[in-house]
Amino acid sequence: MASSQPVKPPLAGQPAQAQRGSQAGLKYPSSGKTIYNRPLNRSRTQELSQASFAYLFGEMVSYAQKRVTGIQDLEKRLNVQGHPIGLKLLDLLLYREPTRSQTRPLNIIALLQFITTALWRHLFSRPADALEKSSNPETPDEYMISDNEPLVNQYISVPKEMNQLNCAAFVAGIVEGVCDGAGFPARVTAHSVGKGEEGELWPGKTVFLVKFQPEVVEREAYLGKS
Amino acid sequence: MRRTKSAQLIEYRVVYALIIINKAGGLVYQRDFTEGLNKLSVNDYLVLAGTFHGVHAITTRLNPLQPPNEAPSGIEVLETEHFRLQCFQTLTGTKFLLFTEPFQPNTDKIVARIYELYADYVMKNPFYSLEMPIRSEGWERRLVREMRVLNSR
């Protein structure tokens, strides 16, 4: 239980903050009960309409597309949109874990497993399709999470002239937020690996490349020795 | 040339082609689903779309009875000896024209299914600009797959 303690203060502090900053345009229920007054587990099993998410995400992509100079810039913007979600989801999902496994992931494998199971289940109602470590000995800091059919890309067809783009950069941002929040700073990018062939089984297959900062790998090696 | 009845039924269940016309009468999508159909030039398809749009607009005014409560729908089905044309107009004025064999059953259901695919894979795609020609890989893939299933039944 001790590990869940740091989670609570910021959440308990939020209603006060929300009431203080009564900006124009933000409405609060007359009962004074905001979303922060609700139990955190209330929406645990609730689901969302995929169509409404698709429209929202479509608008997020169009918004990110405004005033960008290139595809990298666009992916960066989507990544930035996802990052704060990841930071918050880490806390929420750990809070919802059973009490004995409520500890923060302490090594890379535990963190990545938390991401591919708990985070993926929460976001997409299924675990990720694969988790691999880079086989290249020169890049021991790289891990790959594969998703055969990313939910965010379900209705999105990227035009030919932008084929480098993968809108799952938003999900990569969420993963990056979780890694950063857990104290494993990383850079996460989304890459399409579908070959665009006729009759391909998973044409939208996406690999999330998780590249940890050198100090994380160094610490991991040091911890592994003891 | 005589065919048995079952052979006839199999042979006649074919979806030939789909045309989508936007609310201004412009052609936004055209695709054939079977081999060996008569082809028109790109320009002719555009003319065909515009002409049909006009004829459809006229037919909505042809009702000899008192105007009913709901707005007249215009042409819904056009049948000839060799093909059947099912027209479905969405609430926003986009028209789906489906060319099939004259005996193809449930063409309205097929168009409804195509409309569903269109709503999902064209309208929810952030890279599609409204009223413009449809070049969407996901839509193309699912549409062709769906029609192939229908034609191979």
TrEMBL record, chain A:
Q: What is the name attached to this protein's record?
A: Trafficking protein particle complex subunit
Chain coiled-coil ranges: none
Q: Which family does it belong to?
A: Belongs to the TRAPP small subunits family. BET3 subfamily.
Q: Where in the cell is it found?
A: Endoplasmic reticulum; Golgi apparatus, cis-Golgi network
User: What gene does this protein come from?
Assistant: trs31
Q: Where is this region: Disordered?
A: 1-41
The keyword Protein biosynthesis appears for this protein: no
Keywords noted in UniProt: Endoplasmic reticulum, ER-Golgi transport, Golgi apparatus, Transport
Q: Which GO terms describe its cellular component?
A: endoplasmic reticulum; TRAPPI protein complex; TRAPPII protein complex; TRAPPIII protein complex
Automatic annotation (TrEMBL), chain B:
- Protein name in UniProt: Trafficking protein particle complex subunit
List, alphabetically, the GO terms of the cellular component aspect. endoplasmic reticulum; Golgi apparatus; TRAPP complex
Keyword Transport among record annotations: yes
Q: What is its main location?
A: endoplasmic reticulum
Lineage: superkingdom:
Eukaryota
Q: How does it assemble?
A: Part of the multisubunit transport protein particle (TRAPP) complex.
Q: Which GO terms describe its biological process?
A: endoplasmic reticulum to Golgi vesicle-mediated transport
List the InterPro entries hit by this protein, alphabetically. Answer: Longin-like_dom_sf (IPR011012), TRAPPC (IPR007233)
Enumerate the transmembrane spans: none
Q: Tell me where in or outside the cell this protein is found.
A: Endoplasmic reticulum; Golgi apparatus, cis-Golgi network; Golgi apparatus
UniProt-listed Pfam families:
Sybindin
Matching entries from SMART domains are given as: Sybindin (SM01399)
Source organism: Lachnellula hyalina
> Which keywords does this Swiss-Prot/TrEMBL entry list?
Endoplasmic reticulum, ER-Golgi transport, Golgi apparatus, Transport
By its UniProt entry, which SUPFAM superfamilies does this protein fall under?
SNARE-like (SSF64356)
* Family from the record: Belongs to the TRAPP small subunits family. TRAPPC4 subfamily.
